[in-house]
Specification:
Largest sheet: 3 strands, antiparallel
Distance between the termini: 32 Å
Order of helices and strands: EEHEHH
Number of strands: 3
Number of helices: 3
Strand order of the largest sheet: 2-1-3
Amino acid sequence: MIFSFKNKETEEYFDLEFRGNAEKEEYLENNKNVIQTLNAVNQVSPYSVGRMKTDGAFRDVMANIKKNNKSMHSNVKTGNLSQI
């Protein structure tokens, strides 16, 4: 996993890759002049914020659900789900 850090003395930002959280914590323990920072670039993805477009097969499945479940038809959206 890649983590972002800042050197408190030089104000330099940098990224390092560690195999796990324990390895990262050990690095921070041995380097008191370094703090971990959050970097929006590696923290947010289009998939986690709902910007992923659905493919045609998924829309077909949703249309079939809507067609076969008339009582639910007002709750099932069959268009481009990224715009809902």
